[in-house]
Design a protein that fits this description.
The protein is of the alpha/beta class. Strands 1, 4, 6, 7, 8, 10, 11, 12 and 14 form a 9-stranded mixed beta sheet that branches. A 3-stranded antiparallel beta sheet has the order 5-13-9.
């Protein structure tokens, strides 16, 4: 055999080995574009519209990040469905509604089913987000519901008087300093805030009834949508959720409903914490929350009404960019 022929045979053999190695990695290790893939998007902590990352944002579920992850999952051709992994006591009205409206668009434009799993807590704005899903699963012991709106405005007038501090407020109108923490609330102000919370509450209820149409009784729903919370197994009886079970059981339910027979590939989208955030997590983070919510937010209270309007139980839990793994 000529030397030229020998080199040609060796070349073919090498190409064969490379091709075999690629096929082996695909079929034995599972790194191939699977249509049996679901995207898991965690929603952990207090739901807010957005803002810059800081030591105070570790336990915040930013609507900006969640909406971006929803868009990535929806546009991924390998993703068959989306699972919202919820562990939140709610948050701002605008932040919660941004996520809900994005879920609506995904179901309409991409025709991809959206599931929700409620872990420890899925209350208020977090339940509002879950209600937009096609199917909701919750642990039997999770806290579900708290359908309502709340405005919280502190009054530090007496405290300031005791320490000899007096605020001089000059405004262009009677309502310009509405929500001021430096004086008692006026009756007309309280009436205005009450009207806002009632309107927001009605919007909340109307949307939940629309999303849960055929699954929930309107009269019964109106009775229980007064802000009360339920255990997962109670929420099932009222039609607030569709099934109870663990996270693994929720994945199993999804597999059955999606008609997936083999391995289920999971793509998890989450926010990677910085080294500083990790260092200051847990106990240090708890202290930062006390400082932020009791001091900083109080000082800013009279400047921004949206800071006080919540679908919230204010239950702080950890928040999570992306990882993938398989589950049988």
């Amino acid at each position: 055999m000529r030397l030229k022929d020998i080199f040609f045979v060796l070349f073919l053999f090498i190409v064969f080995l490379i091709g075999f190695a690629i096929l082996a990695s695909v079929f034995f290790f599972g790194d191939y574009p699977s249509q049996d893939t679901i995207a898991v998007i965690p929603i952990r902590g207090i739901i807010l519209s957005g803002g810059e990352d800081s030591l105070f944002s570790n336990n915040i579920a930013k609507a900006d990040d969640i909406v971006e992850n929803l868009e990535l999952a929806a546009s991924d051709p390998t993703v068959k469905a989306i699972l919202l992994d919820i562990d939140s006591g709610g948050g701002s009205v605008v932040g919660s509604r941004r996520i809900v409206k994005k879920i609506e668009l995904i179901k309409k434009d991409f025709n991809k089913p959206v599931f929700a799993y409620i872990n420890e807590t899925g209350a208020s704005g977090a339940y509002y987000v879950a209600s937009a899903a096609d199917f909701i699963i919750a642990d039997e012991g999770s806290l579900v519901g708290s359908i309502g709106a709340i405005i919280m405005i502190p009054d530090i007038n007496e405290f300031l008087s005791k320490v000899g501090v007096k605020m001089n407020i000059i405004s262009s109108g009677d309502m310009k300093d509405i929500g001021s923490i430096y004086r008692p609330m006026k009756k007309e102000e309280r009436k205005l805030f009450e009207d806002i919370t009632v309107e927001i509450h009605e919007m909340f209820k109307d949307d939940v009834l629309r999303y849960r149409e055929g699954k929930i009784n309107k009269e019964r729903f109106n009775e229980i949508s007064d802000g009360r919370i339920f255990l997962g197994k109670q929420a099932l009886l009222y039609g607030l959720i569709d099934a109870t079970g663990s996270y693994e059981e929720a994945l199993s339910i999804m597999k059955n409903k999606l008609g997936i027979k083999g391995k289920l590939k999971i793509k998890k989208y989450y926010k990677e914490r910085s080294i500083i955030e990790k260092i200051f997590s847990e106990n240090a983070y708890a202290l930062s929350q006390v400082i932020k919510y009791n001091i900083i937010d109080s000082l800013n209270a009279s400047n921004n009404l949206s800071d006080h309007l919540y679908y919230s139980n204010n239950s702080p839990i950890n928040y999570y960019n992306y990882e993938a793994y398989y589950i049988k």
